[in-house]
């Protein structure tokens, strides 16, 4: 029966998009953070998706073949900005603080994209559920 | 049992094939944001034809019918209208349209099956 596998596939996608939304929320929440050292500055996180292949399934992914999982979460490579703020208690000896490399516009776009993909998969689940129920109805009356 | 199989005809297999196609489309939609994912689809007509032909014909009543293969195969890669930067060939609007279409097809097959089943039921009840 293929219909019940659709729930697993769409479910894995819902999970992946939720994680993507989570990283976006984390990026936005940390967009205002400043530090005194360049290598300690917050870097925006990006999720990388990967298809769950039948041959490479992990034990907990049985029945999820064709779905999607988070392969890794990478740091955004864009450069860290520094700002001269001698009065800031976090400033280094030259009076600079280092800002997070979060671009709010990019994060908003990312959030919208994640939410649209989530909705698409919810729609898949809904349609499949209706069809499953109708199939069961055949044997009634 | 043979009578019921005959009454249902090709539609029982068609239902399985349609749900298989829905699974493939669901896979495409789930992987809409996966880099290098290639969208797939099945050619319904050719697979159904092949399924009908590959079934073993029974020439005697004593022959046992062969069970159908669950995975008829025949998956093909979709050719995208517009190439994307990350090598992903899923085009969400195309997939949504196809998913809606296959959902309607599934319901159509279900309706036919429903009427066949109620026909059998009426024949058995005899009223």
Major sheet of chain A: 3 strands, antiparallel
Oligomer: heterodimer
Tell me the number of helical segments of chain B per DSSP (H or I, 4 or more residues long). 4
> Cα-atom Rg of chain B, whole angstroms?
19 Å
Q: Which H/E pattern describes the elements of chain B? A: HHEHEH
Strand adjacency order, main sheet of chain A: 1-5-4
Mean pLDDT of chain A: 90
Features:
heterodimer; A: 141 residues; alpha+beta; three-stranded antiparallel sheet; two-stranded antiparallel sheet; 2 helices; 44% helix; elongated; B: 127 residues; mainly alpha; 4 helices; 2 strands
Characterise the protein shown here.
Chain A has two helices and five strands. Chain A is of the alpha+beta class and 141 residues long. In chain A, the strands form two sheets. In chain A, strands 1-5-4 form a three-stranded antiparallel beta sheet, with no helix packed on it. A two-stranded antiparallel sheet of chain A has the order 2-3. In chain A, α1 (3-29) runs antiparallel to α2. The longest helix of chain A has 35 residues, at 104-138. Chain B is mainly α and 127 residues long. Chain B has one domain (2-125). Chain B has helices at 2-8, 11-30, 44-54, 92-125; strands spanning 40-42, 75-77. In chain B, 24% of the residues are buried. The interface between A and B is medium-sized, with 33 and 27 residues.
């Amino acid at each position: 029966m293929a219909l019940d596998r659709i729930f697993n596939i769409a479910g894995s996608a819902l999970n992946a998009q939720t994680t993507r939304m989570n990283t976006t929320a984390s990026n936005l929440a940390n967009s205002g953070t400043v530090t005194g050292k360049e290598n300690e500055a917050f870097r925006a996180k990006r999720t990388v998706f990967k298809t769950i292949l039948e041959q490479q399934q992990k034990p907990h992914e049985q029945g999820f073949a064709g779905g999607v999982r988070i392969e890794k979460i990478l740091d955004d490579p864009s450069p860290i900005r520094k700002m001269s703020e001698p009065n800031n208690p976090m400033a280094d000896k030259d009076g600079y603080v280092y800002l997070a490399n979060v671009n709010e516009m990019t994060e908003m776009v990312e959030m919208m994209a994640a939410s649209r993909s989530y909705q698409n998969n919810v729609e898949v689940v809904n349609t499949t559920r209706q069809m499953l129920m109708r199939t069961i109805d055949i044997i009634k009356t | 049992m043979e009578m019921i199989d005959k009454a249902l005809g090709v539609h029982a297999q068609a239902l399985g094939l349609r749900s298989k196609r829905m699974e493939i489309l669901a896979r495409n939609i789930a992987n809409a944001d996966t880099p290098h994912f290639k969208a797939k689809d099945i050619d319904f007509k050719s697979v159904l034809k092949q399924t009908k032909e590959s079934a073993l014909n029974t020439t005697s009543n004593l022959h046992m019918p062969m069970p159908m293969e669950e995975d008829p195969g025949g998956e093909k890669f979709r050719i995208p209208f517009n190439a994307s930067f990350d090598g992903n060939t899923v085009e969400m609007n195309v997939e949504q349209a196809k998913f809606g279409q296959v959902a309607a097809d599934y319901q159509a097959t279900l309706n036919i099956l429903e009427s066949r089943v109620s026909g059998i039921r009426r024949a058995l009840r005899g009223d």
